[in-house]
Each structure stands twice: as structure tokens, then as C-alpha cells.
Amino acid sequence: MNAMTSNAEAFLRRAEALATPAWVGALRRQGVEALARSGLPNRRVEAYRYTDLTPVARAEFGAAPKALARPELPAQRGRARMVFVDGVLRADLSTLPPRPLSDAAPLLGTVENSATAPVAALNAALAEDGMFLDIPAGENAGLIELVSIVTEGAGPIAFHPRHVVRLGEGASVTILETCEGPDGVGYLHNPVFEVVVAEGATCAHTRIQREGQGAYFLSSIHARIAAGGTYDNFTLNAGAKLARNEIHSALEGPKAACHMNGAQLVGQGQLADTTTFLHHAAPDCASRQTYKSVLTGNGRGVFQGKILVAQVAQRTDGYQMNQALLLSEDAEMDAKPQLEIYADDVKCSHGATIGALDENQLFYLRSRGIPEKAARAMLVQAFLTEAVDGVADETCRAALDEAVMGWWQGVAA
Amino acid sequence: MPAVTETIETVQSVAEGGYKWGFETDIEMEFAPKGLNEDIVRFISKKKNEPGWLLEWRLKAFAIWQKMEEPDWAAVNYPRIDYQDAYYYAAPVQKAKPKSLDEVDPELLKTYAKLGIPLKEQAILAGVEGAGESPSDAAEGGRMPIAIDAVFDSVSVATTFKDRLEKEGIIFCAISEAVQNHPELVRQYLGSVVPQADNFFAALNCAVFTDGSFVYIPKGVKCPMELSTYFRINAKSTGQFERTLIIADEGSTVSYLEGCTAPMRDENQLHAAVVELVALDDASIKYSTVQNWYPGDAEGKGGIYNFVTKRAACRGKRSKVSWTQVETGSAITWKYPSCILQGDDSVGEFYSVAITNNRQQADTGTKMFHIGKNTRSTIISKGISAGFGQNTYRGLVRIGAKATGARNFTQCDSLLIGDQCGAHTVPYIENRCISAKVEHEATTSRIAEDQLFYCRQRGLSEEEAVGLIVNGFCREVLKELPMEFAVEAQKLLQISLEGSVG
């Protein structure tokens, strides 16, 4: 192992020092090997062309505080919730009876790429804990909340939760995930999801990422969807200094579906990167992606989306749209939508636009007596609504609207 | 002519079939020794009687090339190329200028005849004294004359209509000739758009380029005819490294056509060309290519590796460069004609049709660098994959922070014929300017059953129907081509897709 040449050396040393129970051993090995090989990539690596992870490699992270904090929690919105404080699973604060992650051992690292892609490898090498949500066949689990809070006193910690969600045949669940933390602290949140959707099952996953302004957020979601199953993801990305959201989905059975939507709200000093990879590996599947970015200050937005249609995946219907709104002179948006198609009976399209607010629309609103500031707010909100509207669950949508409003008020102030 | 008649005719010619430019001309050739080293670079430079600065320039490029790695990011697969196992210089043996066609090497004439070049032009190309200089030669059969520069392996064999062009002050000649006669222009512009260290294949070209065309259009001149270069790889185990340099001075206009063919062989041959275009204030360059290098046989044996660097600098205000390409040949195409839009209000355009059939692979697209204010670019790319073909559009649109009011529109459509081929789209979009607007759309589909049915019920065979639909699919690009080329391109599309249906 050339651990010494890898820029992830500090992480690798930490992984070595961890206790490694048998159930996590294989995952950790894979993660350590992959991380030693790739390190945390810089922009010379094609998949990280617009997002350099070397600042994360260079940053120094401390150990989690010994004393358990008791932060004030928002009101519970779902049927049950699981709470992580400073990266530690808190049974005392959770209303969902936790299942040990060791029960998920046979699944760990089995969903495409979830042990070897750099962001996932970092997690695999260092994961100690996480949520295991196991929904039996036919059951509707309702809305489950997953809350991650970093407290003021935690300092620059690094935590790498690995969450596993397994849905039996025909089961369904809605997950509302929120991530928050204090501004000005360079902590690292590195969550990885492995989602296994069995035949006819439905998993709707909404994430509201509002980490502190100094934080690093490196996330990777890996989903495997069987025949007739659906995985829906909506990610609202508003926080962190550097955020990388990877979503890898594989449609593995006929008539499976995947919807990946999201919004990136990027302000001064922030970089937000959404990278999606959609693998159509079976016939008659459909996928939809709509991503919207709004950039202010010197914010940088990145969208990379790849749709791969395998030769067997005839009659695929794939659509991807990515739009960005530049609201300031110094903002930058980089986009790389990508189609790789090996089947002929397909309908695949992608579109991308980058531009400022439409002057005609502004004029229209102003000519009707709406002040410029309010008119701008209306247009930005309308722009984002198109993406948010795709979220079916009302509680999730309300939470998203609230978060968007909060962000806009912060920008406008 | 109605499109249907055209298509039927075309399909008939398809029936005769295959790649009809696959012959080989048995002609007396002069080769440099096989392999590549500094001595070969010196040999080429000496053969061309080049000044010292150019030799130095070549050697510097060679030194850079030796340190470079062959790129592997393109979506193409091929066995490693042995750069020592090829001839870098091959030229038909020069004899005294023939007095009439009878004295010309009949093999050379046969080649031109097979390539479909009219006899009058053959005489000129073969260098017959006096040919092409009387006014009657200029407008044969009432059609627009086209000035042709023919490049046979490593050297330009002849250029037509030179005198007529000279009257306008236009320079159109082989680049080796320009080095002798217009060194100041060559020295000023050579490598100014594609520098030696630009990329692996460009560096190789800088070191060993043998010939190509040179065009200079003086201030305010509208070139009175289409300029054309015809490239042919003939000799075995040769690589062709041509270099084309076109300079359009202030307010000038030129349209330039490029065509290429090669014999059928079961070995792969390398073609690593560099094309540099410079457009100054208010100048306009239209560059059209119909690329029909030998694509290899149905099993993917043989064919040309077409690794080409083409780039235009729109240096002047309101300058315009338009690239149009129809890529039907080559085993592998690796080509990204680009525009650097430096001048305010300059315009870049890229229209492309790329076809891959059998085992062909194409990775092609464009780059548009918006630097000046109010620069505009349009990209229309049509990719067609059939058989086991793999077709990739790869493009970059970069809007710099100072390119206020810049505008880009990109459309990439792919058509799949058969379930063993692939179509890929890899656009990069980078915008750093709030007042710029960038739009990109891409679609992939196959020929719809209802379209086919509609054509079939009107009595067209399946192959005719596919031809008609494909021509319609490519229409936006084909209409950008000059007349003669458009007809040729349509036929080529048909031939390239032969055997892909049914």
C-alpha cells in the first residue's frame, strides 16, 4: 500500500487506529485500499474537474468531544426520527428504535461504487456508525426523519456515518434528512447512503443540507432499484464551504424509476457540486432529473450528470435538465451533462442553461408596480419552484420551502 | 433536385457499393527512412530547403513531443501506435515539368480521374505548362471554378488557378512554397493558434509536417472562388502530417474546402494534421471538410487514425469563423475544430455530421472560448451510429469573466441505427459571466417506426427510407456546405450507412 504518497494519509492513519469489529472489516479494507490509491482527488482527475478535494486533505480535524451535548432539537415532523449529534448516534434523542448497523453487514459496500469511489472510500475507511432502516415487504413506514446536528462546542470534527436503507418488496418510506451545524467551523460531514429498493418498493428521500459556512460536506448516495421500484431524491444544498453531493443510481429491473431533483443555493465563499450518475441497466426504465442552481457573491456551482444506458436497457426514457441562475458578477457555474448510450430504442435528452434573470420578466413585473427587489425574489422563487414541486410529500415540501425562504432572506439582507 | 430523386440515385450508387476510393496508385515514390528521430526532422526540413528558424522550431516541437504522453481521455480504443514503424516522408518523384498530358505519369492521372477530378484540372494538377491560365479554363461548363491544392502523401503536387488568385493579391499555395516565398507571414502566424506544446498529436505534427496549404487573403478582398485542398494518403506505412494555415486580413472573406481519401489497406495509417485559421477585424472564414479517409473493413481491420487539431483565432473585431464538417471516414476520428473568440462581437460556428458504421469510432466536437464582449457561438452536431460504431460528441463552451453579453447555443443530436452501436454526449459548459447566456440541448433517439412506415408505404425501400430520414436529420448541417460539397456529402452519408439496416 502506498499510503505514504496518498494525500489522505491523515485519514488513513485514523482508520488504522480505529477498532475494527468483524462486521465492518471488509468495508474498511476496501475503503482504505481505494483511498490509499486515489487519495482525495484534485482537478486533474476528470470526475473532479471542477471540484478540488485537496483542501479537505489538507485540513486538520480533531476528535469528537467526550461529553455528549444536548442541543435543542426542532419539533419532530415525521412518525419517528433518528438523531445524530456531533456525528454520534443518540438513542436517547431518537424516537426510532435504532437497529445496529452490524445487522446490515451483508449489505455494506455492496451497492455499486459505495466502497471505492473517493468520497465513498473515505467513508468506508472511517465509518463506525449509521442508521439501518430495514422496511419489511409490503410495509409503509411513513415519514422518517434523519437529523444531523453539529454543536457549537464540537470544533473541527470529522464524521463519516454510513446509512443503509433496505426496502422489501412493495414497501415504502419517506425520508427527510436535515444536516445543520455552526458557521465558521471547518468540520467534515461525510455521509454515505446505501439504498436497496426491492421490487415494487418506493423510497422518497429529501435532504436539506444547511451545514455551517465553514464546513466540508462530502456525501455519496448509492441506490439499487429492482423491477417496478422507485427511488426519488431531492437535495437542497444550501450550506457548507465545499459541498459535493454524489448520487449513483442503478435501475436494475424492468420498469424501475428514478427521480433525482435538487436545488443548489450558493453564496459568497461557497462551492456546491452535484454529481449524478444514472445507470440504466434494464429495459423499460424511466429517469428524470431536474437541477436548479442559484448563485450569488463569488459562489461557484457545479453540475455533472451522467446517464449511462446499457445495451440491454431498450425502451429507456431518460431526461435531464440543469439550469443555473447567475445573480452576481463574480459567480461561476460549470456544467457537464453527459450521455453514454449503448441501446438504440431509447429516448434520452438533456438540456442545460446558464444565464442571468430575464430582463423582460423583470420589466413585466416592475411595470405592474412590483418593486425591483420583490420582483427579483419572485422570479428566483419561481425558478426554484419548478424543482421543488416534484416533491410529493407535503411535510418535506413545506420544510424545503422554509429552507429556501430562509436562504433568500439571508441573501437579500 | 427533389430530395427523393437524389436519394434514389444515391442508393443506386450504393448498390455498386463500398469504398470506391480504396485503390492504390503505383507511382514512383521517394521515402525517408522509416522511424522518427531528430535526423528525420532534419531530413524533412532539408528536403524542403527550409530556413534555420523553422528547423529550430521543428526540433523544439520534437523535444516537447518526446516528453508528452499520448492522450487517453477520448472514448476511442486502438492498439498502441508504434511511431517508429512508419515513414514520415513520402513524395512522388519529381520530374521536369511535362509539356502536355501525354507526358504525365499515367498512374497519377488515373488517380485523379478515379477521384473524380475533371480533366482540365487534372492537367493543372499534373503541372502541365500553361494549363489553367487561360480565362476559358476558369469557368468550365459554366460552373463556379474552384482553386485546388492537391496533397499527395507528404507533398503538395499542384495548385490550380494560382495566377488568377494572384491578381487579387491572394496567396494560395503549398505551405512549403509559402515558407520560401512569404517567410515573414509564415513566421508571424505559424504556431500562433496551435503552439508546439498544444497536444501530443499537434506537437508531432509541428516536428514532422511535410506539406499542406497556405492561404493569405489581403485586406478587403473577397476571394472570388472557393479554395480547396485535396488530401490523399497513397503510400503504404506512411503517416500524413499536413499543416494548413489560413490568414484572413481585415475585411476579407474566404471559403475553403477540404476533402480526403486513402487506399484500402488492412494496416492502420496515421493522419495527424494541424489547421490554423486567423481572422482579423471584420474578416470571415468558412472552412468545410468532407472527410472520407478509408474507414477500415466491416471487421474493423485497417483504416485511418484521424487525429487532427483544428483551431481558429477570431482575433479581430466582428470576425467570423465557421467550421462545417462531414465526417464519414476514418477508423478513428479525434477532432475538435475550435474557435477562440478574442475580438469583440466575433462569431464562431460549428456544424458537424459524424457517422460511424461497422467498427468506426468517432470522438469529435468543438471548443468555443468566449473572451471578447458580445461574442456569439453556435454549435450544431449530428451524430449517427450504426453497426458497432461508437460516436461521441465532446465539446467545451467557456465564457470568460469579461465576455459580457456572450451568447452560446448548442444542439447535439444522436441517431442510433441498430442495437450494437453507441452514442455519447460529453459537453462541458463553463460560465463566469453574469450577462452571458448559454443554452445546451442534446437528444438521442432512433429512427421512429412511424417515420419509416410513412416512407415505406410510399414505395421506398427500407434503405431508401433510412437514407431520406438521415438526410433530413443532417439537414441543418448539410445546408451550410457549399453546393458541390453538399451533394457529395449526401451521397457519402448513404454509402457510409450501407448495410446498416435490415
From TrEMBL, chain B:
SUF system FeS cluster assembly SufBD core domain mapped to chain residues: 231-473
GO biological process: iron-sulfur cluster assembly
Domain SUF system FeS cluster assembly SufBD N-terminal: 167-223
Pfam family name, one: SufBD_N
Family note: Belongs to the iron-sulfur cluster assembly SufBD family.
Protein name per UniProt: Fe-S cluster assembly protein SufB
